[in-house]
Amino acid sequence: MANPCHVRSISLPSRSHPTTLKIQEELYKLRKWEASSTSTLGTIHNGLSGMEELYKCLDDLLSLQSTQQAISHHQHEKWVEELLDESVSLLDVCCNTRDVISQFKENVGDLQSALRRRKGDLCIESSINNYIRSRKKMNKDAKKLLAAMKKMDNKAGASPLLDQNHQLSTVIRVLRDVNAMSISIFQSLVLFLSTPVLKSKPSRWSLVSKFMQKGVVSCEEKHENVEELENIDFALSKISSDRADLETMQIAHKGLGALEVSIEGLDNGLECMFRDLIKTRASLLNIISH
């Protein structure tokens, strides 16, 4: 996977609370995933599952009395405002990504139903056109989200920690690292959604060359990033031009069916992450209001 942002490391004090060490462990797992996986729907779903476990650990950390006291005693400092602003921005990105996924899921389902029923060329052609339009709109929306997340990434952790105490500096680092990993997960998903519609079947190397020129993938061959959508696009182009044989129809059916299941999994993962983001923001607001 082309890493959407630079990999961060977490440097916690040697005598950290067990909950903090658990967070460090979960972050390490996610960074291994970030560095080694490709942007396929399956691997992105694994990343979302890892974030769910990470946020459970973060909730445990924010529930500690020592954490709450450390934050509440410094609630007027700039880093608190930054963390609250980041929580709103992450919620916005999550909501917008869910909207894009939801609309795409609806169009994939409609096209799958049309191909299954085969009620006439006009019906199928209309569904294919709707699917293509949704892909193009998804591409534009995804690029806007990527630009917004790049700004978030650049602003993250702007305030220095100064001479904070052990507990407080550890909590701040953890919160910043969890937010950074959240951005990275969203970037991976949105990068996949920004895959352009392919009108013909390119060779593997021509596809890699095309995406390298646009800066979407690294210098390594990353054709896996688009393969799941590429095969469907090619099959649909043949169906639209009346050049589809039985094998092509089967490719379209199989690809759309798998895509529908994968998108459903992503939608569920995003819903869980949305709830986790809400809970984290609520915990911070409750701490600083006391």
Automatic annotation (TrEMBL):
Top-level taxon: Eukaryota
Pfam families registered for this protein in UniProt: BPS1
Protein name: DUF241 domain protein
GO aspect biological process, one term: root development
Record-linked InterPro entries: BPS1_pln
Organism: Vitis vinifera (Grape)
